[in-house]
Amino acid sequence: MASEACTVEMKHAVYETLWQQWQQDKQIYDPLKILDFYRQLEQQANVSTTLRQKIYQAFVSRTSQLLSAPFHTDSRCAEFPQVTSLLIELRQIPDNYTRDIIETLFDDVLSSESTLSVAQRLDNLNASLTQQTMAKLQLLHRVEVHVNSSVHIFLMDNLRQLSKQPTFMQELDIGLQNRVRRSLLPGHDFHPMPLIVCLRKTNNINYYLSECENISNMCIQKRHPAKTPFKVRHAIVEEQNQSFTFQSPYWDKRYLTINSTLQLGAEITRNVYSRRDINWLHVIHAQDGVAIYDAIYESIICAGDPQQRENDEFLAYTRLVEDFDAHRDDCTWTIEDCSNL
Q: Which domain of life does the UniProt lineage start with (predicted)?
């Protein structure tokens, strides 16, 4: 009907009427139908730029609204079949469409969820490798991440793991591959790490992480040639190349461990021990040193709070990841090569 209208003004009026009728028929709830309508109008002459932009924004807004569901759950491994189906359909859209959807999605979820929570739940989207990479790169460059080094570190490690996946070279176009490589900090990979290391408090040259004298908790103590060193083991799985174990030859070959069975406190949790069971920890670059994370990036090993003292020993403890910036002095460590001890 619009194509048969005699004047440009009449055609504009017809297209506007079609859009209004289309919304009344509740087609607006399906973003793929909005996209199809938008593409049909792109093939027509004399469709106003204002109307096309209005329909495109409706598509972006509705898509991001549906994709936001996985970010509003406490679970970091929940499944959302409707979201997965939508993402599969969206794999064929132009990259600029995807970028607009992701940006609108982050505008929405970051207004109600913490930056760390959003970063941790990105994998709930069950997106393709390309979609995951685009989303993580866009989040990495948002101002909310620039002012939160814990989330920045988390996303950097995520991107590193993505770049190690076997299909990285095949699935991602060369431009996206290069964006990932440029984003990764130089020297960020710790492999190879010395086989024997000592973990020193970055802000105090006199204190090292070691097992307490009287209990199996970990403490900070003065360097001792036998008690301080840890034997390091690196994760074999390539995509987990930031995972390490720290085993003490002196303390009956027990491992540095964050006890994940203890409920994390609001500020400090005394759950850093030595145990016989292997415990994998993530070691990630931070300003002036490294941060040592648990296996699921919920907490970091810290020490130095004067209140965490027992029997004249200063106990190590964990803080929540989101508290890293506020307690950087407590939670930053220096790795020293102790192979000669």
A: Eukaryota
